[in-house]
TrEMBL record:
SUPFAM superfamilies the UniProt entry points to: RmlC-like cupins (SSF51182)
Signal peptide per UniProt: none
Domain Cupin type-2: 85-155
One Pfam family of this chain: Cupin_2
UniProt xrefs under InterPro entries: Cupin_2, RmlC-like_jellyroll, RmlC_Cupin_sf
Top-level taxon in the UniProt lineage: Bacteria
Coiled-coil zones: none
Organism of derivation: Variovorax terrae
Name used for this protein in its record: Cupin domain-containing protein
Amino acid sequence: MDPQALLDSWKDYVAPSAPCTAADMDRRIARFGEIPASPRAFVDTYVKGHERVLYSVIGSGVTDDPNFKPKIAAAENFHVDYIIAPPGCGAALHWHDSEEVFVVQSGRWEFDWIDGASGDKHTVSLNPRDTISVPPFVHRAFRSLDGESGMLVSILGGKTPGRVMWHASLADRAKAVGAGFDANGMAHRIGE
């Protein structure tokens, strides 16, 4: 490459910053102690073995709780949540219509998924800083192997992610504890 052309190329890669005041940026900061948390963000949390706390960090994400809002509302095409679960607990098999990336922050986590072509269920264990990217429409589940010391980050793609679709194996277990959905698709349990 021509040395002068290399140096001159900077004219195409320098640009001013967009406006962003301190107040603007303050609305885009999520300090852990201020992040909204819910132990009932999804219908499966009523079923033993799926207890967990979801921290809604950025973007609307998906939830079965109409009152659960993120700390940072502004998100363009992605949503971030933190998940903490007791040992052996986590999400039941479900899918989203967009990709979902999980990054293990601490602890050990196990992930299951179902191959829709063969029906085979697969499992992989991940350690801190390991990452898995699950394609859209693939049933996935996860569980903490270590409990409260473990934290998982979920990054869900899409500007407005659709509803969670659950595997049929959850329906009877959820019905047995009186859990279901209202007319708006929000999770409730009989008597609560």
